[in-house]
Design a protein that fits this description.
By secondary structure, the chain is mainly β. It has 1 helix and 11 strands.
């Protein structure tokens, strides 16, 4: 059974940094990708970034490109999202999710993903 567990959220001032982590278990993820999504109160869940397990190819939303970095550690089955220059509008619950990689056009859609973590809160104060 696939399990995803996020950690590392918290409270930070604008301009600061946080790193959230996603621990994956339960299967081999070599042909999969992991995505990070976020959902702010009253808003729809939105794509943030994704990475393929096999090659480490990455894709970012325009809103975080240049500020966030997604990475993975295959040996530990971990995926990280380093978030720098945080803004109040980055405040949200951040979720990691996994799915077989099917092109970036699909990986930016939450309906593509098969398994989800419980989420971790990130709050950025102004």
């Amino acid at each position: 059974q696939v399990q995803l567990v996020e950690s590392g959220g918290g409270f930070v001032q604008a301009g600061g940094s946080l790193r959230v982590s996603c621990a994956a278990s339960g299967r081999t993820f070599s042909s999969y990708a992991t995505g990070w999504f976020r959902q702010a109160p009253g808003k729809e869940r939105e794509f943030v970034a994704a990475i393929t397990w096999a090659v480490g190819s990455t894709y970012y939303s325009d809103s975080v490109k240049g500020r966030f970095t997604i990475s993975r550690d295959n040996a530990k089955n971990m995926v990280y999202l380093q978030m720098n220059i945080l803004k109040p509008e980055d405040t949200a619950v951040y979720y990691c999710a996994v799915a077989p990689f099917g092109g970036w056009g699909n990986m930016i859609k939450d309906v593509t993903y098969l398994y989800w973590g419980q989420g971790t809160q990130v709050t950025v104060s102004s």
